[in-house]
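Please review this one:
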Amino acid sequence: MNVSKWMQLDSEVWQAGLRTAAAGGLTLLVADLLALPQGYWAVISAVIIVQNRIGASLQAAASRIIGTLVGGLVGFAVAMIMPATPIGAFLGLVLAIGALGMMAVRQVNLRVAPLTAAILLVSAPSHVEVWISATHRMVEILIGSAIGVLVSMTIAPGRSDTWMRTEAAEILSRLATLFGIDRSGKDAARDSGIAEADTAIDKAFRSFDTLTREITEERASHISRGVVEPERLRHDLRDLRTSSSFLFRMSRLPEPAPVADALAQPLADVTEAVRTALTGLGQSLVAREAPSDPDALDQAFAAFQDSAQTLMGGSATLDAPAIAYLNNLSFALEQVRHSIASLTGCVSDMTHAPASA
């Protein structure tokens, strides 16, 4: 085992281990103190509930509590109805978990219900009344869930607001990288890098849906007062990606010679300014600071537009394909500029947003 590699783990990894250990240890102490008959179910619940983010822990706790109540009630009802014989126990188990399994397909919060019913029906001692056994199992799981949430909220708490900012910064960083890639010609290694960046961006966007729900949970619980607006941020980022993709497709087209000669440097300056702006926006999001002044970006776009207008009105005669290419390129760049301006406004509104109550 490479010990030095483990020692170099970042704080996020160590904090996750600390939370999990604290939840399991604290739950075991409480289970022993309350003399729970099978306290390990409380420990298992606490470990399951502890997540990297408070919002995720709240969602996991809500699902586990709802599933526990429903599974416990169904398991208790089946145990009371079915005869206390091996065949009766088998049929009762199959009936309970089968019905709850179908319910869990339609309702995500009931995923743990079949497990709870199975625990109740399989682990109930024969010398204990069914309702007592059901109460014990439900109390054990509920205690574990409560401790899991408590630990998530108090020991190195991670908030969904912060994670969403990090995901947004990752998207902006990947887009900045894509703006620096020359797409002319064929290059397998380059295309592989582009595909990898696109995959990472898609993954980050998918996590936005989960983080949006978690932020809602945190706000409903008055844990976070962060002013991050998930829907607005996601909309602006998607708009930026769409406009960037249009520009990337333009860069794969062969450039008419007059356009390439006259606009090579202005276009390179705009691309570099966009990369700098996107990187800066990502850093501002994570640091909760106001974005830097966009003067450099505005000047680069203005210089390109001046060069494009000079080319259109110059002595050189542009044919129809060259004019169409120039107009499309100018339009694509204007859309990117508009998207960046909108995102900059969103980031500005999220400046100094508190991470917690």
Summary: The longest helix spans residues 188-220. Residues 7-154 form one domain.
